[in-house]
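Worked example 2:
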Amino acid sequence: MGSTDSGFQLTRLDGLTCLQSTLLNRCELIDHAFSTRLGGLSGGFLSSLNTAFHTGDKIEHVLENRRLLLNHWGYRPEEIVAGSQVHGVTVFPVAAQDRGRGAEPGTFLAEADALVTAEPGIVLTAYAADCLLLYIAEPHIPVIALAHAGWRGTLSAMAVLVVDFMQARYGVDPSHLLAAISPGICPGCYRVNEETAGRFKLAGWGGEPYLEEDGQGSYRLDLPRINAAQLINAGIAAHNLAQTGFCTSCRPDLFYSYRRERGLTGRMMGFLAIKPEKEMIA
């Protein structure tokens, strides 16, 4: 075990390091984690636990890195599910027959930045290197969602759309939901131009603490704070929301960062799964 930072615990297991939400860990029906860059096979600027195919890494390295991460929970990389992330707000309901779609290049199930399922044993995955991953779970039904939110997804209120989808399709009560926001880039490291800042102002996120002019012609944008506010606006109770002070750009020892490395970098993987029924019975 390692340190705890604002609701996320840095955990060392089986030769690698990942993060887990202390809030979600209290839900015995769910498995989850957010990887770091530590403990894998990839080399060079991808060192070492790169989990994404589109980074120029060797496919066998990506598959083995995913296996290393998932092995602790007994999941296999060939059974994961992944959408093609396009910085949109499409929410895709994942069924049992979708198992394995996204496990290898060319098999992604859809252009979707959010995945939702009520199927036990389905491993939802998403990938990031500065963008946020949103983990959402209703432990009583149960039903889970994993969403990818960069600035475009945040501007379009991905968090609200996912909660609305879960409510409409699965009948969830938002006040019963648990949510955790992964590490991402902090406002101290993330500057946006006037045009992008203007879009957030029009959407109601202008001014502190969400958007702050830095005096150099750009703006500090606080994506984690905006997503937290959106989740609460969608009906999630503040005490059911976990956040982290970990910044992907500030911590090159732990995380890949697209902004810091100017695009030449790997990706962390987040996964979320309802435990297989045999484990729930046991």
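The first strand starts at residue 4 and ends at 5. Residues 1-5 have pLDDT under 50 and may be disordered.
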